[in-house]
Amino acid sequence: MVATILIALGANLGDRGETITQAIDQLATDRDFNLLQRSSLLVTKPVGGPEGQPDFINAAAKFETSLSADQVHQKLIEVEHLHGRVRKLRWGARSLDLDLLLYDQEVRQTTQLTLPHPRMSFRRFVMQPAAEIAAEMIHPQLGSTLGQLWQQLVSSPPVVEIATPPGPTAERLCAEVQRQLGEPMVHIPPPILWPESATQLSSVLTQAIGEAAMAWEPPPGHAVNLFPWWSELPCLLDTSAVPSAMPTQPRLVVLWIPASESVDPIETTWWSPEARASLERRLEEAVNQKVHGPRLCLSGHDMTTAVTEVTAAIEAMQ
Fold it and tell me: Domain 3-144's class?
């Protein structure tokens, strides 16, 4: 069986452009790969790692291969090693980084390989070269083409919604992300006066989301609107709730199922553990069914890890 695959390439050490060109050529001359197309080289700023790194050069390449996804993954590691790649620090500087983005329509998650790549859909430095050469390829989880995902990244308002059970936990996440990136970068809404009973959550959220819809674009001087809710959430809490009419789709939806130790104490009074687990399952199912644009899924992540992930995602989508 022959599979069509998409590979992302990046480097910010040494002769970056030459390294990426050589890596694509090495795979193209391998009898197990047939090069279909390579993208232009794109200069980008580093995202999420230590400060002071050199700029990256990024690219993408599309191949046909008779190898399995695991075999392709191993080949990419071998090519990285040929170019001196040493994995010391997450999101750190590297001589060459090769990521398997898509392997046909395969979806899988193992300790070694996740397909599609879990952070590809919102990273401009990945999506721009990918859409250049593979706009017709379909993201098997989102059901959108790479061209459609790229258009949403560049044309939708810079709005990020956090799809998570409502409450102070989500507000704290947004406040911490704002603190990391700075208030000029990230705008967040005023804190909500949370009710004592979960039965009032849907109406409280509906009001807050309605107000947000009237101020969908970030205020002057801010780059991103970060909302501690998903606009579909009131309908999950109360099936009789009227869906909010949002101006457009957000640029990014982050599904966050927080680790139990990160949940604010007031939220434990709203639901029993069983009821909260049920809400989380329904929330995850709804996001998977309804979100077809850029998406980040964080399941079981604590507050610190979630802040790191969301901060890096916002930087990457700029």
Answer: alpha beta
Catalytic residue at 123?
A: no
Q: What is the mean pLDDT of each run of 10 residues along the chain (318 residues)?
A: 97 94 98 98 86 90 98 97 71 82 98 97 98 99 99 97 98 99 96 92 92 91 97 88 81 98 96 96 97 98 98 96
pTM of structure: 0.94
Give every CB contact of residue 23 below 8 A, 6+ residues apart in sequence: 9, 79, 83, 96, 98
- The residue ranges of DSSP E strands in 39-146, in sequence order, are 42-44, 56-65, 97-103, 108-109, 114-115
Instruction: Report yes or no: 219 and 253 within 8 Å, Cβ to Cβ.
Output: no
**Does the annotation count 99 as an active-site position?**
yes
Q: Are 62 and 133 in contact (CB under 8 A)?
A: yes
32 flagged as catalytic: no
Q: Which token pair is 45? A: 């700023």
What confidence score (pLDDT) does residue 88 get?
Answer: 59
Tokens of 102: 């898509």
Catalytic one of 16, 38, 97, 295: 97
Residue 179 known to be catalytic: no
Element (H, E) at 180: helix 168-181
Q: Single out the catalytic residue among 15, 25, 30, 85.
A: 85
Query: Mapping DSSP to helix (H, G, I), strand (E, B) and coil, where does residue 314 land?
Result: helix
Q: How many CA atoms lie within 13 A of 229 on its CB side?
A: 28
Pairing of strands 56-65, 3-11: antiparallel
Topology of the domain covering 156-317: Rossmann fold (3.40.50)
216 near 224, Cβ under 8 Å?
no
C-alpha dist (Å) from residue 103 to 106, 126, 139, 183, 281: 6, 16, 10, 39, 28
Give domain limits for the chain.
Answer: 3-144, 156-317
